[in-house]
Design goal:
The protein has twelve helices and 18 strands. The chain has helices at residues 63-70, 122-127, 129-132, 136-157, 197-207, 243-271, 276-280, 291-303, 319-326, 381-390, 399-403, 419-427; strands at 24-37, 40-46, 51-57, 77-86, 94-105, 162-163, 169-170, 182-185, 188-192, 209-217, 230-239, 288-290, 333-336, 349-350, 353-357, 359-364, 369-376, 412-418. The chain is of the alpha+beta class. It is elongated. It has two domains: 14-105, OB fold (Dihydrolipoamide Acetyltransferase, E2P); 130-434, 2-Layer Sandwich (BirA Bifunctional Protein, domain 2). An eight-stranded mixed beta sheet has the order 6-10-11-18-17-16-13-12. The structure holds 4-amino-1,4-dioxobutan-2-aminium adenosine-5'-monophosphate (4AD) and magnesium ion (MG).
């Protein structure tokens, strides 16, 4: 390689451009858009960190540069050098007076970039997801997703939790047998994990406060705007914690995430058209509702004509129920003590009414519905064993889990939060398919 030119302009990213006002810099990226007006070209560049408009005067650059730029196609990659100039009216507050352009890869007119500024259907966009992620909106969503994940880990890491990641290949179900993905494990049947919970219960009894964070899998055969077959879950588990302690943990955790997104990703929220006051309102404490209270509200809503179907006491909430309940509050609402019959086998019964489980679902506002599910866990050996049997789960696969109740059992609690549900809510999206780089759903495993 030749020695680098000491006079070469520094390579900078667009998000750092404000530090280079008046300087000549080099940007590396893609052509986002191009407008021509007489002897002027106004290309807009993107580099993954932002957008900036350039200005090329026919008289100010060489004829080759002017022509190369004038005929450049959308999403061609390039390197551009120019002088940064502050301009109040400009996109992002700065423009680039172009001096030179090096085209790295020119997309030919005969095979243009498939996603154009005109409207495309969702199926087309999902089919081209590998390219769609370049759009301003999708990039904003992915940045917010990354901040949600960062803030979620930060909350636990700075509050005494130890991250312990459970296996993804597992011998048994955690959340019901109807959504398991089987895997051939050297001739034996194994499953992709539905939740790391059972394993973090073990590490909580070793380390006190723990969490896991990773992908989880459910063979969801329904097409809804809330369900993926592969999604990311973060799951804290705490020894000596009861349901009340768990509710406090959940509201502080969710508030921390919402306020971090507001503090660090407001420009992206605005790109998505989000009203920042909605996010500002997400502060602990959150309202609490017992299942009984929530059921009465749903029955009243039906009488008043706000809900089409009549809610049956004892049922689990369906999507329309959650949507209605969660649109009654400006903060997430924590619904606790559901009938044990509609919940998982591992939930501790309420001593005040053993037909209820000491559990919580956190429903996000604006109709987004469940973002968190959790509970206090059964800590008595005999009760847990009878629950496993009553649910027709293979007892041998749960021997190790029962051991946790044989050797120094303690009350303990935990929850799981689905990252994509939180991304959909905080970004104000219609559907979870846009919340993850490459969504996996009933009908899609491509690209
Ligand atoms: O309520 P769930 O099923 O709870 C559990 O899995 C517990 N074992 C967690 C625990 O206590 N450690 O799932 C937890 C959360 C839901 O509230 C939801 O946010 C998300 O995971 N989730 C899904 N997200 C996207 N697609 C799906 N198919 C989801 N299923 C659950
Ligand atoms: Mg749930």
């Amino acid at each position: 390689m030749p020695p680098s030119d000491p006079h070469a302009a520094p390579i900078v990213s667009i998000d750092q451009i404000a530090h280079h006002d008046g300087q000549t810099v080099t940007l590396r990226g893609w052509l986002y858009n191009l407008r021509e007006s007489g002897k002027l070209l106004f290309p807009i560049f993107r580099d993954g960190t932002g957008l900036i408009q350039g200005v090329a005067h026919k008289a100010g650059v060489s004829a080759e540069v002017f022509e190369a730029l004038r005929s450049l196609t959308q999403e061609s990659s390039l390197q551009v050098t120019g002088r940064v100039r502050a301009d109040q009216r400009a996109l992002g507050g700065f423009e680039l007076d172009i001096e030179s352009v090096t085209v790295l890869h020119r997309i030919p007119e005969s095979d243009p970039y498939p996603i154009t500024p005109k409207e495309h259907g969702v199926d087309f966009l999902m089919e081209h997801r590998h390219l769609w992620v370049r759009s301003t909106r999708q990039a904003a969503i992915l940045r917010i997703r990354a901040e949600i994940m960062r803030a979620a880990q930060e909350y636990f890491d700075s509050n005494g939790f130890i991250r312990t990641d459970p296996p993804i290949l597992t011998p048994a179900a955690c959340e019901g047998t109807s959504t398991l993905f089987p895997v051939d494990y050297f001739g034996d049947e194994a499953f992709l994990t539905q939740s790391g919970q059972l394993y973090v219960e073990a590490t909580a009894l070793a380390l006190g406060k723990v969490y896991s964070f990773g992908p989880t899998f459910r063979a969801e055969k329904s097409k809804t705007r809330r369900h993926l077959t592969e999604f990311w879950m973060i799951e804290p588990e705490v020894a000596f914690c009861d349901l009340d302690g768990l509710l406090e943990l959940a509201e502080n955790f969710v508030s921390h995430i919402a306020q971090s997104v507001l503090a660090r990703r407001s420009p992206e929220l605005l790109t998505l058209g989000r009203d920042l006051d909605r996010i500002r309102a997400i502060q602990a404490p959150f309202p609490r509702l017992s299942y009984d209270e929530a059921a009465s509200m749903l029955q009243q809503a039906h009488k008043d004509g706000h809900l089409e179907h009549a809610f049956q006491y004892g049922d689990d909430f369906g999507s329309p129920d959650e949507t209605w309940l969660s649109s009654q509050f400006d903060r997430p609402v924590m619904v606790h003590r559901y009938p044990a019959a509609v919940k998982a086998f591992y939930m501790q019964p309420d001593p005040a009414n053993p037909s209820l489980a000491l559990c919580v679902d956190v429903l996000a506002p604006e109709g987004y519905g469940e973002i968190i599910g959790g509970s206090q866990r059964v800590d008595d050996y005999d009760l847990l064993k009878s629950r496993i049997e009553a649910h027709n789960l293979p007892i041998e696969a749960f021997q190790w889990y029962l051991d946790l109740r044989r050797y120094g059992s303690v009350p303990h609690s935990g929850f799981g939060m689905g990252i994509e549900r939180v991304v959909a809510w905080l970004c104000g999206l219609e559907h979870v398919r846009e919340t993850i780089p490459f969504a996996r759903t009933l009908n899609r495993i491509f690209p």
